[in-house]
Write a structure and sequence with these properties.
Blueprint lengths: L2 H17 L5 H14 L4 H20 L14 H28 L2 H25 L7 H14 L3 H11 L2 H4 L12 H18 L5 H30 L3
Helix pairs in contact: 1-10, 2-9, 3-5, 3-6, 3-9, 4-5, 4-10, 5-6, 5-10, 6-7, 6-10
Protein name: EcsC family protein
Pfam family, one: EcsC
Organism: Reichenbachiella carrageenanivorans
Length: 240
C-alpha cells in the first residue's frame, strides 16, 4: 500500500464512522423542526421538487445525458483523485454561480434552481464515477450513483440504511429491483426536501436569495463530491 493509500485509508475510516453514527436526540429535534418548516413550502414548489427528482432519476437510470466514458488508463489512486478533486471544485463553482443567479430574482427564478442544480450534481457524480473507472452505462452503477446522492441528502437514520447498501455493494446490488417503479420516489424526494428545508426557502426571497443560493449550493455540492469520493474509495480499497 502506498503512502497516499495509507493516508486516505485513515480518512475513509473517519468517514465510515460519520456515516454510521447513531441518530441522536438532536437529530430527532432537527427532524421535528424540518417537518414544521416543510409546512411552509408552497404547494407549487412541492410538486416541482417531486417532479424534478422523479424525472432526473429516470434520466440517470435510463438516459444517455449523463453517461461519461470510463477512464481506462493505468493511473495511481493519487493521480485519479487529483482529477476528481478538480472536477468537484469545477462543479462546485458552477453550482455556486447558478445558485446566486437564480436566487437573485426571488421566487420565480428560484424555482429554476432545483432542476438546474440537480443536473449539475448528477453530472458531477457521473464524471467522478468515470474517473474511478466505473462504466456508467451499467444500470447497477447508476443505481449506486443514486444511493450516493441519497447518502448526501438524507437524515442520519436513512443514511445508516443507505451506508449498509453501498458498503456491501457487490452483494447488495444483486438484490436490488430492476423495475424503476419499485424505486421509492416519495421517500427520496421527502428526504431531499427535508435536507434543504429553510435554506432553500430563503433563496426564494429577492436579494437575500442570491447570497443564500450561492452559499448553500457551494456547501452541499462540495459535500456531495467528497461523499462520492469516499464511496468509491470504499469500493476500491475494501472490495468484497
Amino acid at each position: 500500500m502506498s503512502s497516499y493509500e495509507e493516508k486516505i485509508t485513515n480518512e475513509l475510516a473517519e468517514w465510515q464512522i460519520a456515516m454510521q453514527r447513531t441518530p441522536s436526540v438532536s437529530n430527532a429535534t432537527i427532524q421535528k423542526f424540518q417537518t414544521r418548516i416543510n409546512r411552509l413550502w408552497p404547494n407549487r414548489l412541492r410538486r416541482l421538487i417531486t417532479q424534478v427528482v422523479k424525472q432526473m432519476t429516470r434520466a440517470v437510470l435510463f438516459g444517455a445525458e449523463f453517461t461519461t466514458k470510463p477512464n481506462t488508463e493505468t493511473r495511481s489512486l493519487m493521480d485519479i483523485e487529483a482529477h476528481v478533486k478538480e472536477k468537484i471544485n469545477r462543479y462546485t463553482s458552477t453550482a455556486t454561480a447558478e445558485g446566486a443567479i437564480t436566487g437573485f430574482g426571488g421566487f420565480v427564478s428560484g424555482l429554476a434552481d432545483f432542476p438546474l442544480w440537480m443536473s449539475i450534481k448528477m453530472k458531477m457524480l457521473f464524471e467522478i464515477a468515470a474517473s474511478y473507472g466505473v462504466d456508467t452505462k451499467d444500470y447497477k452503477e447508476r443505481l449506486f450513483i443514486l444511493y450516493v446522492f441519497q447518502l448526501a441528502f438524507s437524515s442520519q437514520k436513512r443514511r445508516n440504511e443507505i451506508y449498509l447498501v453501498i458498503s456491501n455493494w457487490e452483494i447488495q446490488k444483486d438484490k436490488l429491483p430492476s423495475d424503476i417503479n419499485a424505486f421509492d420516489w416519495q421517500l427520496f424526494q421527502q428526504e431531499y426536501r427535508d435536507h434543504l428545508d429553510l435554506a432553500k426557502l430563503l433563496q426564494l426571497i429577492p436579494g437575500v436569495g442570491a447570497v443564500v443560493g450561492a452559499y448553500v449550493n457551494h456547501k452541499l455540492t462540495n459535500r456531495l463530491g467528497k461523499i462520492a469520493m469516499n464511496a468509491y474509495r470504499l469500493r476500491r480499497l475494501n472490495p468484497r
